[in-house]
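Hi P.,

Sorry for the delay on this. The queue was packed all week, but I finally got your sequence through. Input first:
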Amino acid sequence: MTALPLVFDAPRRTKPPRHLADLTREEARAAVTELGQPAFRADQLARHFYAGVTDPAQMTDLPAAVREDLTTALLPGLLTPVRHQSADGGRTRKTLWRLHDGALVESVLMRYPERATVCISSQAGCGMACPFCATGQSGLTRNLSAAEIIGQAVAAAAAMANGEIPGGPGRLSNVVFMGMGEPLANYARVRKTLDALLTPAPHGLGLAQRSVTVSTVGLVPAIRKLTEEGLNVTLAVSLHAPDDELRDTLVPINTRWNVGEVLGAADDFARRTGRRYSVEYALIRDVNDQPFRADLLGKLLAKRLAHVNLIPLNPTPGSKWDASPLPAQQEFVARLRAAGVPTTVRDTRGSDIDGACGQLAAADQVDGVPSIAVPVPGTDLPGTDLPGTDLSGTGGAGVEEGVALGAESDQG
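Then the structure:
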């Protein structure tokens, strides 16, 4: 397999139409005023958007004569659902979205007895080039706009509120950036999305900070910037190897920022927040699952405020990579726990809808365009709600717990 280059700056493509969710509240009020309407109409539009209302006819607090003009100007449809696929008795729903330029991304909504989580994408494709991840091997198409990212969460919240998922009407409680793309390579838009997720209604979804998880392969400057922001969201680091020699191969960004630098940045985040971070580790047969590597990882993490989430790899068609056998998984867990490192293993879930770790990019095409999807479900780690994480930290995984910054400019 030919190694792909790392890509930090997304290709320039046509920007999505202007959307209310891309604007600050002040900018939105100014935009409404420019349309000849009083500024408070922007607040009304925000209320409808975050409530998942898409039909102007339902926006009855707006004058009928201006509804179409306002929604066309500030609430354009950015995400068109191509199809839904369900698993787990309908409690897991994967949605394939077509963007304005034809790019395809997926989000996955997962309902559990006590919570509902959506996995969202931050990029179309991925530039991190991890060789065992289908999304990483697809290359980077472009960054998503803030409104395109936020829209995935808003749609999930509306689906829960409208009772579209078995169990009756409910509330979206958790969001994880573990879908397609490296979130911290699209930092500015992901940061704006975090504001929208955390801001109380009617100007946001009003989620708790600890209910939002941001995953990364280890963009150290961006982790440090997130630390400086003062947010108490959950951090997940996709490590996949305890030593630089192997990680240079599995996670090419390691040639830029090595294991020590990545964990050092994560430690600083944990010290500031007082919250444990998750170390994601895909177990790959005869590659990173050896007992000596379990011992290395245990030694590396024993005194850190970290939790290891082991993920048996799900191979994609034609891939040389395969999951570790159960005995190897069990020994890996035992060695980590013996070293005093909190550890869980996740059982694959969602494979019947091509939603398992790393499978999605290879499985689907719509009108000849490949879709590359995000993780399907999992359960909480302490203080988090982590689904089966994108294996490289950047695209495609679904499992359940069994036991240079880049792209910061405002380009579309």
